[in-house]
Design goal:
InterPro entries: ABC_tran_2. The protein is mostly helical. It contains 23 helices and no strands. It has two domains: 270 residues, no CATH class; 235 residues, no CATH class.
Length: 580
């Protein structure tokens, strides 16, 4: 055991030696996490105000613990959301995997050191969310005349620190065997990436849709019997969180504390056993897959156009790296999921006779969420050239014009938006709460605005590329501009859908229903066309100039001499080459 702890402390100490927040130009930058926290502060204040109103109702219906469980589960969903893009890159596909595997270190100790680093990064998200929410909830319950155990206020930080353990443990328990099984396939890297995406999406969907029908017949001033029953059912499903909340609230504290220790300890033992069985092979085979065999199979070179070759090579290379592929798939995964969640928690749509104003509100929410995720959080557009890393200089040596290189990045970034929009459209039509014409128009608006935001993001990356990185977390930490498109998308989408809503409803009496819809969509399409045309023109009008401007940041066209140590996306031109 001493040897295991020694290995664990040694590697964890090395992993935690992170460089300061320095931009590629050498200037210190404001931490991106702090920028995001400050940006979401107004939303946190509004949620806390809402909790202060709901807390006395929860206490009066004797569902205080159940309500606390829902808050914990919501925070865990956000933890998993933010961890999704870094789990694979931190645990399985790392720059130092081959070197560490050659050292006399226990695989389980290596795994737990990496998992601890991941946990320490996510616990800050949990603390940011749960400290204000749980303290507000407990204080409001106390103020309403329902005394809360003093231990609750002491244990809130403990709950916040334990909350990330459950989603991370579940993700690890399911992903370790999946990565191990993927190692037996011929295209193990791509198979592993797809399998991990399915596993993580399934976990997130299960968390997010645990409480599927909170939008029944109730309002904020009362808790219906249906809602109380739903809260209790959700708490029973999330039993590890329930016993934690019961312990903090002083309800059968001794018994529930013992159950908590058993559950959380059991999860750690299971993770330890799985790491001991599967981790060494999972990491070794991933490293072998990245290195490639060094030979080119017969028939690998095919005649194709330059743009299609660039897109194909880019897609294949991304699929070899889960740390890049999973964030890139996020928008396609979560837009239809959040749309389904919205309709599951939304009481009724136009089919219930709410009228055009209600339809406009529903469509506005869908468009805002879709644009923020598809256009504002699309990794394929946020870091299209940065993700090439040290191999950008090698790629530049190909006889491809800057305009074609930019067009290939734009097509690939928009292609995943098309997939997301089609799936979301199927969700909208499946619920049937919007007329099919309105649903189709919403998706076209999301796609057009996302294309415009993709252009803005690509242009921003070309103006400020960063080719000196080791993993995706470095890119996120060193590039605070990555969060700008998300807020820009929210603001643009809000203006595009809500300004026409106000104008069209103002003339409802004179235009009638059909005329109101015609005016609304006419204004929305006009604004969308203007925004999209402006962003795309700004990108392609200067594509050659911007492409040439990246040369000085790419090592003056000198590729990395050691492809195994290259930080680039294309792996030193391995297996098939750029056009293969």
């Amino acid at each position: 055991m001493k040897g295991w702890l020694k290995d664990f402390r040694l590697l964890l100490g090395v992993l935690m030696k992170r460089p300061p927040n320095i931009r590629p130009d050498g200037k210190r930058q404001f931490p991106q996490g702090l920028i995001v926290a400050l940006s979401f502060l107004p939303i946190m204040v509004m949620v806390c105000v809402l909790l202060a109103r709901l807390a006395p109702l929860a206490a009066s219906h004797e569902v205080t613990a159940e309500f606390a469980v829902v808050l914990i589960a919501a925070a865990q969903s956000m933890v998993l959301f933010f961890a999704l893009g870094t789990i694979a890159g931190t645990l399985y596909v790392t720059e130092d995997a081959e070197f560490v595997s050659a050292l006399p270190l226990r695989p389980s100790a290596v795994f737990f050191a990496r998992l601890t680093k991941l946990y320490l990064g996510e616990v800050t998200v949990s603390l940011y969310l749960l400290l204000p929410l749980l303290y507000t909830f407990g204080g409001a319950v106390d103020a309403a005349g329902y005394p809360v155990s003093p231990a609750f206020y002491v244990l809130v930080p403990v709950i916040a620190c334990l909350a990330p353990v459950l989603p991370l443990a579940i993700a690890v328990i399911l992903s370790l065997p999946v990565v191990w099984l993927a190692s037996f396939f011929k295209r193990r890297a791509a198979v592993g990436t797809v399998a991990l995406a399915v596993v993580y999406f399934g976990i997130f969907a299960a968390y997010f849709l645990t409480i599927p029908n909170l939008g029944g017949a109730y309002d904020i001033d009362s808790l219906s019997a249906e809602l109380v029953m739903t809260l209790r059912s959700a708490a029973n499903i999330l039993y590890p969180d329930k016993v934690l909340a019961l312990t903090a609230l002083g309800i059968d504290a001794g018994k529930n504390f013992g159950i908590s220790v058993g559950i959380w300890g059991g999860m750690m033992v299971l993770v330890f056993l799985l790491a001991s069985l599967f981790y060494r092979r999972a990491v070794r085979t991933n490293s072998e897959s990245r290195a490639g065999k060094g030979t080119v199979p017969a028939g690998i070179f095919k005649a194709r156009g330059q743009i299609s070759a660039l897109i194909s090579a880019d897609a294949k290379s991304i699929m070899r790296y889960p740390s890049l592929a999973l964030p890139s798939l996020t928008s396609a995964m979560f837009t239809p999921l959040l749309t389904a969640f919205f309709f599951l928690t939304e009481s009724a749509g136009s089919s219930a006779g709410e009228g055009a104003s209600h339809d406009f509100l529903v469509m506005g929410v869908i468009v805002m969420v879709g644009v923020a995720l598809n256009g504002g959080s699309n990794y394929l557009a946020l870091i299209p050239f940065t993700r090439e890393g040290g191999q950008h200089a090698l790629i530049r040596s190909l006889p491809v014009s800057g305009k074609k290189a930019v067009l290939a990045k734009f097509i690939m970034a928009t292609a995943i938006n098309v997939v997301s929009v089609l799936v979301t459209l199927a969700v909208l039509l499946g619920f049937g709460k919007l007329h099919y014409a309105n649903a189709l128009m919403c998706m076209l608006i999301i796609l057009a605005l996302s294309a415009g935001l993709n252009s803005m993001s690509i242009r921003q990356d070309m103006k400020h590329p960063n080719f000196d990185w080791k993993d995706i977390s470095d890119v996120q930490r060193q590039n605070s501009r990555m969060i700008i498109p998300m807020f820009a998308g929210l603001a643009i989408a809000a203006a595009v859908v809500f300004v026409p809503m106000v104008l069209s409803t103002s003339f409802a009496s004179s235009l009638g229903t059909a005329g109101m819809y015609a005016l609304y969509w006419g204004l929305v399409v006009t604004l969308t066309a203007g925004v999209t045309a402006g962003f795309t023109r700004a990108l392609f009008a200067r594509s050659e100039e911007l492409y040439e401007g990246m040369r000085e940041r790419s090592g003056e066209g000198v590729p990395s001499p050691d492809p195994m140590r290259s930080k680039g996306l294309f792996g030193g031109g391995r297996k098939g080459g750029m056009l293969g």
